[in-house]
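Q: what does this look like with EPZ bound?
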Amino acid sequence: MDAFVIEGGRRLEGRLRVNGAKNAALPLMAAALLTDQPLTLRDIPPLADIRNMVALLGELGCSHEAPEDGVLRLQARDESRSHARYDIVRTMRAGICVLGPLLARRGEARVSLPGGCAIGDRPIDLHLRGLVALGATVFLKGGDIIAKAPRRRLKGGRVFLGGAFGSTVLGTANVMSAAALADGQTIIESAACEPEIVDLATMLNAMGANIRGAGSPRIIVEGVRDLRGIDHTVIPDRIEAGTLMCAAAITNGSLLLENCPLDALMAVSDRLEAAGVQMKALDRHGNPSSDPIPADVDPMRVTVRVASERVLRPVEITTQPHPGFPTDLQAQLMALLTLAEGNSVITEKIFPERFLHVAELSRMGARLFRQGPTVIISGVRRLVGAPVMASDLRASASLVLAGLAAEGTTIVNRVYHLDRGYHKMEDRLASVGASVKRVDDKELAPQLVAAE
Ligand code: EPZ
């Protein structure tokens, strides 16, 4: 298995472009099931989850082509298939987002229950509740969700998608996609407001859907009979952008991030600035702007300089649904705050068990005290390199960040978790001055390799 060997203590400096967003791309890809016309998606990151989704869509009768880098063309050619099998869905929880499109267009769907994962329970009750409100009958059989629309067509309805931990992002994507082809009007109340939902609604509308209010908690969908093919560029990845911001800050470096979705990162820039990280957006002419987001640029594709020259101040962070602080950046900010001067507090309100990084960061000298969903981070002067491992994508990213700042050598084991969300992270970090090498763990001394 691959591991990263990181020699810490190098200041990062240079320019990086933020890639297209994995979590936006997955539901956009599933929308290929809503039409028999071709869907062309641009800026699709070449990640394992994307390949798994292509494979799943292939099983569901979609052809695919990748005519050039970052471009993916999907077309549903055989609409008789509706079974998303366990061996594909278990590799990628986002496989659940084929459920709504299949049901809406083909009148039936059989999708394996995805199960939990390293960040905690991942229920799908809200997805199912939403589809039932559109007239579907849903039952479970042999670990599969079997859903059917009466006379093969869903009917608009009122859907409430709020749960104990807020709304649901993929649940909103599922219900909104299904409602696009349902008879009549659907009102989704307590919808997720994440930018990935806005991107999906934008694309569906360009395909002929009639969706209003995406990005707010109330989405109104007037169902249409058919959707057409479209050419769509996916939004940049706000979580990758936030991770790179932390990389600049934790190395006291200075990175110029291009294609940065600053408009979707207000809660993150607020916390980074409170900690003392400098953020400066550039205007259309490349000059530093006095506005947080200059008026003359696309707020989702800003060029921004992120720099830090000093020991950071401690801050408090609570993860929340968008526009609050994203759970997918909690682990990375924790790595950063291990080196702040004083006590920071992080509370995780979306996935209260999402703390796989805590024990591993502690092995590098971080002082962390967890109580339930809250961690107190008592800043230390230095982290020390160590062999570490975390079986979750964002936790792995936080360990890479810690390794960039730590004294000595850090080995991050099992980077296939990281590879699920970041394309060739080692090359990108090395291009701005980090010492990060990918190795096969067979090349490492046995005591540096994670045990089973
Ligand atoms: C999406 O997962 C993202 N995944 C996750 O990113 C992200 O952490 C999460 O949204 C929250 O922002 C993709 O987009 C592929 P949810 P999703 O349904 O949609 C509870 C990453 O690192 N809930 O919004 O599956 C749930 O347990 C990944 O890139 C229910 O109770 O998450 C959680 O507490 C990991 N019932 C909260 O809602 C449901 O039916 C939010 O989950 C569904 C969810």
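Residues 23, 26, 94, 121-127, 163, 165-166, 168-171, 192, 327-328, 350-351, 393-394, 421 surround EPZ (CB under 6 Å). The CA atoms of residues 316 and 381 lie 19 Å apart.
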